[in-house]
Each structure stands twice: as C-alpha cells, then as structure tokens.
Amino acid sequence: ELQQKVEETELLKMELQMLETERVRLSLVEEKLLDVLQLLQQLRDLNISKRALGKILLSTLESCRDPQPGKAHLFEVLDTLQQELMACELLHKEPVEQGQSPQSLSNALVISC
Q1: Count of alpha carbons within 13 Å of 64, Cβ hemisphere only?
Q2: Ramachandran class of 96: left when φ > 0, alpha when ψ lies in -120 to 50, beta otherwise
Q3: How many CB atoms lie within 10 A of CB 51?
Q4: Is the pTM here over 0.85, yes or no?
Q5: 21-65 pLDDT, tens per residue?
Q6: Which of 34, 69, 102, 103 stands the most exposed, by the fewest C-beta atoms within 10 Å?
C-alpha cells in the first residue's frame, strides 16, 4: 500500500510538472500574440493598406509551411509574423508631416511595405 502511494505521488508530480510546462508555453504564446497584435494596431493606426498586410501574412504563412522540428508550430508562426511586421518600414519612419495629403500618405504606405 505504501509503494502504491509512492507511485501515485510520483505520477502526480509528473503531471504537475507537465502542467507547469504547458502553463509556461501558453504564457510565451500569449506574450508573442500580444506583441503581434500591438504591431498590427500600430500599422492600422498608420493606415497601412490591406494589400500590404495581406502580403505580410502570406509571406509569413509561406515561410512557416514546413514546421521546424522541435518548435511549436503556432509559436513559430507568431514569431515569424512578429518579425515580418517589425521589418515593415512604416514602423521605423518619422510621422507624416501635417502638410502631406492623405493620398500621398497612402501611396507611401503601399510602397514601403
């Protein structure tokens, strides 16, 4: 009976460790997702075109077509999307001057991304 209790305790410890590992993984995914959403919000505020966003998304999906061994596919996609969004030149440019027209702004946005 004592041996059975020891085995049950070991199983519970292993399960707890697996749950903790999963919690950490989900926490990392949540952080990455928040970063991606924040970048998308910044680009939306800059009036990036849907076409440019579509190209970024398609590029991300294309580069993540074959999952890397040992890396969670969801995290890989989020990580790649974050890198693609951060590489967008719009996020690194100075704010548009007040004298610029909205038309010239939208043309600049399409070209820069």
Answers
A1: 20
A2: beta
A3: 11
A4: no
A5: 999 999 999 999 999 999 999 988 888 888 988 999 999 989 888
A6: 69
